[in-house]
TrEMBL record:
Compartments in which it is found: Secreted
Keywords, ordered alphabetically: Glycoprotein, Secreted, Selenocysteine, Signal
Cited InterPro entries: Selenoprotein-P_N (IPR007671), SeP (IPR037941)
The protein's name: SEPP1 protein
Length: 165
């Protein structure tokens, strides 16, 4: 996990940037235990310069305790610095879509109205993300489920409804 996590996080960062989600800050908080501190340089070397690795001091208050989280959690903040999602295990595994989808939702939803931190072309980027998600949802709904088929009354492809959990 120690060596695959940085690679998967970097892959996710690049994927989101290629989709137009720019100016996102990624921070990895290293555990403050002695074992983790000895491996800090390995962690730092395994991520790109676009991902900050924060080393806690053994004498400071633990960041994860302060944030009411655990070391494997993802805390996703919006552009105004508000906590939007707190994902713990197993939802924080990067092999699942939860972290990616949570970042996209935090990026695209503007709960605070007009904002000076909003990217100029965010509407186009977010429309593409929504359209792509709707197409995936429609594709899943069109495939037979094997044992029996499901009909979703009142929800067609063209409605553009997506439920976010």
């Amino acid at each position: 996990c120690f060596f695959t996590f940085p690679t998967r996080l970097e892959d996710l960062r690049v994927k989101l940037e290629n989709e137009g989600l720019v100016n996102i800050s990624y921070v990895v908080v290293n555990h403050q235990g002695a074992h983790s501190q000895r491996k800090f340089h390995l962690l730092k070397e395994s991520v790109s310069d676009y991902i900050t690795v924060y080393q806690q001091d053994e004498q400071q208050a633990d960041v994860w305790t302060t944030l009411n989280g655990s070391k494997d959690d993802f805390l996703i903040y919006d552009r105004c610095g508000r906590l939007v999602y707190h994902l713990g295990l197993p939802y924080s595994f990067l092999s699942f879509q939860y972290v990616e989808e949570s970042i996209k939702i935090a990026y695209c939803e503007s709960k605070c109205g007009n904002c000076s931190y909003t990217e100029p072309d965010i509407d186009g980027v977010c429309q593409n993300i929504t359209r792509s998600a709707d197409e995936k949802l429609a594709e899943i709904e069109l495939k037979p489920s094997g044992h029996h088929s499901h009909h979703h009354h009142g929800q067609g492809q063209g409605h553009g409804h997506r439920h976010r959990h």
